Amino acid sequence: MSTPASSETSLFQPFPLGDITLANRIVMAPLTRSRADKGNVPGELVVEYYAQRASVGLIITEATQVSSTAQGYPSTPGLHTAEQVAGWKKVTEAVHAKGSKIFVQLWHTGRMSHTAYQPGEQAPVAPSAIAAKAKTFVAGQGMVDTSVPRALETSEIPGIVNDFRTASRNAIEAGFDGVEIHGAHGYLLDAFLRDGSNQRGDIYGGSIENRARFLLEVMAAVTAEIGAGKVGIRLSPVSPVNDSNESHPQPLFEYVVRELEKLHPVYIHVVEGHTGGPRDNAPFDYEALHKLYSGVWMVNNGYTKSMAQEAIDSGKGDLVAFGRDIISNPDLVRRLREDAPMNPLFSDTSLYGGQGPHGYTDYPALAD
């Protein structure tokens, strides 16, 4: 869909996304903060946090569980209970009141979990019983290795597809403008894609077509439920986070995008390079991937204002997602527009978890 823009300020111009119009092309990337209240319900601080950042054209929320078995980290929100839906509704109302649009990112963490987060302390699920070389946080234990998962039975997969479908319906009930399916970073759908984590012998393993089947079934179910114009997806072709690895990423992700083109989600959100790290950690032809898709293309990972503007002007991307800068700069759009300095991240608080506003809702905005 990308069409080069000539205006120097095209980053700040309105942009159509499906049936909605974004105030600008700046996107808040999904950022796990582990701040949900009891029952994994977003509380009043979460409402304030997102409302503070609602000058961006689109907010994509932190990753949000589609079921009780989808959790892998502490205090991450869900969208599978009535209380969670009600909590998110307060968030969407606050964001809309500020003039922004908001999608919820839906995930299942798969093997990036621990028995402490699973009902009955059962093993987390994955494409194959291969433990991730990664850690998570468990209260009272600190950072611990993720648990050895069990391989999902073929008969169980339709149930998880349905969990994504139900969560997407809940998202619309909660007032979201749409959903982003988390198909990246070693979580369940991404783990099925990759030969480093998927060694199955059934119709969900082996060939590229088989390994992509689960992700594509989820996307087909969700787009059928709420409409393709309300569904995006995030992919991370060569990011190694969470022990994610694949022998031949280029043909794999070209196949995935060709198949997504048939479903035509409203956008594809691509993390370029190593998430939160080097953009050139592994060879990959993103332009070849982009050419396979006719919809909105969102780029991500380490973008500055000049890089974002160049991406839009060149047609490389339609929307640009910003991550850590928007944690510490709730007024990111104004700072970008005015070339104002950015707040650094506070050094005395974690990006994840915590109590009260510090490091969450107390980053200062520019004075009027």
Order of helices and strands: EEEHEHEEEEEHEHHHEHEHEHEHH
Kindly report the average pLDDT value.
96
Q: Report the biggest beta sheet as strand number plus sense, adding barrel if it closes.
A: 8 strands, parallel, barrel
Query: How many helical stretches?
Result: 11
Q: Structural class, from helix and strand content?
A: alpha/beta
Helical percent range? 25-40%
Beta-strand percentage?
15-25%
Q: Tally of extended strands?
A: 14
Span from first to last CA?
37 Å
Radius of gyration of CA atoms, rounded to a whole number: 19 Å
What is the 3D form? globular
Low-confidence stretches: 2-8
Strand order of the largest sheet: 3-4-5-10-11-12-13-14
What's the multimeric state? single chain
Break the fold down into its secondary structure elements and pairings.
Elements: E1 15-17, E2 20-22, E3 26-28, H1 44-52, E4 58-65, H2 82-97, E5 101-107, E6 125-126, E7 135-138, E8 142-145, E9 150-151, H3 157-173, E10 178-182, H4 188-193, H5 208-211, H6 213-226, E11 231-235, H7 249-263, E12 267-271, H8 286-290, E13 296-300, H9 305-314, E14 319-322, H10 324-328, H11 332-338
Parallel strand pairs: 3-4, 3-14, 4-5, 5-10, 6-9, 10-11, 11-12, 12-13, 13-14
Antiparallel strand pairs: 1-2, 7-8
Helix pairs in contact: 1-2, 3-6, 6-7
